[in-house]
Amino acid sequence: MGKFKKDLSREIQLGAGLLSTVSLEAKEDIKEEQITYIDMDMIAPNKLNDFSMDSLEQLAELIVTAGGILQPLILIPEKNEEGKYVLTTGERRWRASRLLREQGRYPKKYKNTVPCIFRNPVDLEINISEENKEKFAILSTNQAREKTDGDKMRELQYWTDIFADLRAHGETQIPESLAAFAGTAQYDEEGNYIPEQLVGKKTKELVMQYGDISSGEYARMRSVQNNASEELMNKLLSNEISFSAVREAVKLPEKEQENLLEEMEGKKIELSDVEKRQAEVQGNIELNKAEMVMEVETLLEHLKKKKESKVEFTVKEYKKYVSCIKQLERLLR
């Protein structure tokens, strides 16, 4: 188990959904629901779950180490048009189990089955559409896992959809299940939920709170959403281009963006690829003023986070600092 020791401890610490690391309260919930072993081939992925499915080999090793999947997958009770049960929780565990089966290493006592419980997102006591209930169920399982740039962007969109839907349904308070998810739920002495107000809160604030996103990160992500072409966004969501590369790519003329995407077809686009393209482009590069303000505000955020009241420089660093400030002033005049 040598090379997986570090990652295994992290999985256990975070409770990422493979080993039995859920809270006591969650364990009691599982006991109350019937665990059924379902054939892997009778399970289908959720079309709304386009999050990355990396590190499957690592998860597979964890399954072998644990002797099987200890935390059940969650399926929608009704079969789909293909006669299969659709996942809302545990797709990576399911894929890792199938990988082990292909390798002939899946625990034999379970044959071709994985532990599951049936739970319909429609039953969630949240006044939103069935699709957004499924999105919330998927988001609930993504809390602890490491996320790609595409995952973070998709989460931002899902949370935005959920809060917009709540407002559209006339809700004025945050449902208990959402508040519990964010760890902000408060209860009185009798155990009754004290509702958190939805009215008066900006969607931006809510998405930052529930998506665990800083104000600077939120501004950068929204800027990309507003300026990137549909093809660039699809590349980002499918992790075929890094976030920093997208931010620079949107500054290129539209034709150059198309050329870049065509040249890099089938390859992941990194920042260096975009910078190379920028160097080849003749003429001026136009920058969005709002984005420039955002970048300066991000620098100020970093400065504010420093605990010391003063910033200490070496003589060489101070000269660089003064030079950068002067150059920036000249550029913006």
UniProtKB/TrEMBL annotation:
A biological process from GO: chromosome segregation
Pfam families: ParB_N (PF02195)
Regions that span the bilayer: none
GO cellular component, one term: chromosome
Superkingdom of source: Bacteria
Positions of the ParB-like N-terminal domain: 36-133
SUPFAM superfamilies assigned to the protein according to its UniProt record, in alphabetical order: ParB/Sulfiredoxin
Recorded coiled-coil stretches: none
UniProt-recorded name of the protein: ParB family chromosome partitioning protein
Organism: Faecalimonas umbilicata
